[in-house]
Amino acid sequence: MYQDEIVEEIHRIREEYSRSFNHDLKAIFADLQKQQAESGREVVTLSRKPGLTTRWSGRARDIGGEAKDISRRST
Predict the structure, then answer these.
(1) What is the per-residue pLDDT for 45?
(2) For an engineered disulfide with 67, which of 12, 22, 59, 60 has Cβ 3.0 to 4.6 Å away?
(3) pLDDT, position 48
(4) Any idea what DSSP says for residue 72?
(5) How far apart are CA 7 and CA 75, in angstroms?
(6) How many CB atoms lie under 10 A from the CB of residue 47?
(7) How far apart are CA 42 and CA 46, in angstroms?
(8) Conformation bin of residue 58: beta by default, left when phi > 0, alpha when psi is -120 to 50
């Protein structure tokens, strides 16, 4: 079976990083949040905005609201 050297290196680095926190997910998460805050980079959210049309239904839905049929447009 073919083994990709890059993938193997990523797995090794990930294992070392996890081991450095004794495989404690809360500690790993806290460290990643700290690194993010210290990076100075802008953090964006990719979540959907309320009221956008869903791809398949053609219906718009606001968070906490009812879906509205927008397939009939008034002219």
Answers:
(1) 81
(2) 59
(3) 66
(4) S
(5) 56
(6) 6
(7) 13
(8) left
* Per-residue model confidence as pLDDT tens for the chain (75 residues): 899 999 999 999 999 999 999 999 999 999 999 999 999 998 888 876 665 555 555 555 555 555 555 555 555
CA 14, 20, 25, 29 torsion-angle sign: negative
State the pLDDT at residue 13: 97
d(CA 64, CA 40): 34
pLDDT of residue 27: 97
CB of 37 closer than 8 Å to CB of 30: no
Cβ atoms of residues 59 and 72 within 8 Å: no
HSE value, Cβ hemisphere, 13 Å, CA-based, for 30: 6
Tokens of 45: 């959210």
